[in-house]
Design goal:
Layout lengths: L1 H10 L4 H34 L6 H5 L1 E2 L9 H16 L8 H8 L2 H26 L1 H27 L4 H20 L4 H32 L10 H4 L1 H14 L6 H15 L3 H26 L15 H19 L1 H17 L6 E2 L34 E5 L15 E5 L5
Parallel strand pairs: 1-2
Antiparallel strand pairs: 3-4
Helix pairs in contact: 1-2, 2-4, 2-5, 4-6, 5-8, 6-8, 6-9, 7-8, 7-13, 8-9, 8-12, 8-13, 9-11, 9-12, 9-14, 11-13, 11-14, 12-14, 14-15
């Protein structure tokens, strides 16, 4: 975060100072919530063990007090972590720093911001929130999924209204990162895989688009869409690369974006989040609209005066763009090659978080450690809890690594299981 602050503030455009300051304030504010949550978890660990620890492994063993209300210990900590990572994702309405930062940052800075910084927020949800606060995740999942659907449509509509190429791609990032949140909080195998894969595919497509826009800006010093036209006749290689990378952004079949968004939508369907699913499907349509609008206005039609001043791509620029083009199709045609490296971590995240060895006693209630097959679900297997799931009775159970057939071509690593205690 600090290096990117200086990248924007020193090498950015005219409004770089304000953009860098706003970026720093938002991210620092989120970090304060995260710090408060970590300190509270350290205090709870001290209360349970008599020793202060900031180890994530120790935090995983805490069974945090939960009630179906807003002021339980687990809910308060959930909100602290949620706000921290929602700002970095960014999640509507905490997104206002992102378009400004993208517009003012140099092209490499925008690529790093889209491919790395935004994924820190998504990784935080996957690594911290889902395993640490399972009851709170279950309780608020339906609402968060619906808000994620709203974010998908909002980002798409805002992208449609833009005349600045960087702002258009920035708002498309807001929309696409909302798909990540929708997948993770669908609380089933399809959604988890889709949300995780969306992180990877969006990193490739968004970073590639920002670099391509940066290459164009170096030649024309304009980001206004209306200044361009017929660029495919002057720079066919740039136009082809832009179209290919954009195909992943609109979830075109055979690209990585199609695989990830398909699994996210399947996750929402399996979870019976009909409102979120409807909004997400609308986001797919609107997403295709703004990307096709951008491609048509910039690369086709009559050649504009500004487009006549462009030059062909250099070998250095081709070398920068070629990996993105290859990854777009590689991630779409061979998804298992990328997903197989995540299955071990995802299974470990679920299987090893199945036991609580620490309990926290409060004045209100005392929670004993769970049994070896206790109620912890890492956001997906909440089997023995009396809390009713907002998704109905059919949830997903993690399939152990030993039970999967060697050489299996299945992408999903979960099998459906009826939740006990809810019949």
């Amino acid at each position: 975060l600090i290096p990117l602050y200086f990248i924007i503030g020193i090498w950015g455009s005219k409004g770089r100072i304000y953009a860098a300051f706003k970026f720093f304030i938002y991210t620092a504010l989120g970090s304060l919530f995260l710090l408060a949550g970590v300190v509270a978890l350290m205090q709870l660990t001290l209360q349970s063990t008599g020793e202060i620890s900031a180890s994530l492994l120790d935090f995983y063993q805490l069974k945090l007090p939960f009630e179906a209300g807003l002021l339980s210990t687990q809910n308060i900590l959930f909100f602290c972590f949620f706000l921290a990572f929602a700002i970095k994702l960014p999640f509507v309405p905490f997104h206002t720093w992102l378009p400004l930062a993208h517009v003012e940052a140099p092209a490499p800075g925008s690529a790093v911001l889209a491919a790395v910084i935004l994924k820190m927020g998504a990784y935080g949800f996957l690594r911290f929130i889902l395993p640490l606060f399972p009851q709170s995740v279950e309780f608020f999942a339906s609402s968060i999924c619906f808000l994620a659907g709203v974010g998908i449509v909002y980002g798409a509509f805002m992208a449609l209204a833009q005349q600045n190429m960087k702002k258009l791609v920035a708002y498309s990032s807001v929309s696409h990162m909302a798909y990540v949140l929708l997948g993770l909080f669908s609380l089933n195998g399809y959604g988890l895989i889709g949300g995780y894969y969306q992180m990877l595919t969006h990193a490739v497509s968004s970073a590639g688009l920002f670099l391509l826009v940066g290459i164009l800006y170096e030649r024309t010093h304009s980001l206004n869409i209306s200044d361009y036209g017929g660029l495919a006749k002057k720079m066919p290689l740039l136009a082809s690369s832009f179209v290919i990378v954009s195909l992943s952004a609109i979830a075109f079949p055979s690209t990585g974006g199609f695989i990830s968004e398909f699994f996210v939508l399947m996750g929402a369907f399996t979870a019976k989040n009909w409102g979120a699913l409807s909004l997400a499907l609308g986001g797919v349509v609107f997403g295709a609209s703004y990307m096709l609008y951008l491609i048509h206005r910039v690369f086709f039609g009559p050649v504009s005066v500004l487009s006549q001043e462009t030059a062909l791509l250099s070998k250095r620029e081709i070398g920068v763009i070629l990996p993105f083009v290859l990854f777009v199709f590689g991630m779409g045609l061979f998804p298992k090659a990328f997903l197989k490296y995540s299955t071990v971590s995802l299974n470990y995240l679920q299987e090893k978080r199945g036991n609580y060895s620490l309990h926290i006693k409060t004045k209100e209630f005392s929670l004993e450690p769970a049994s070896p097959r206790g109620s912890y679900r890492t956001g997906m297997e909440f089997a023995n809890s009396a809390l009713h799931s907002p998704f109905g009775k059919s949830l997903q159970k993690p399939q152990t690594m030993s039970s999967r057939k060697r050489g299996s071509t299945q992408i999903s690593i979960f099998e459906t299981n009826k939740v006990r205690g809810q019949e």
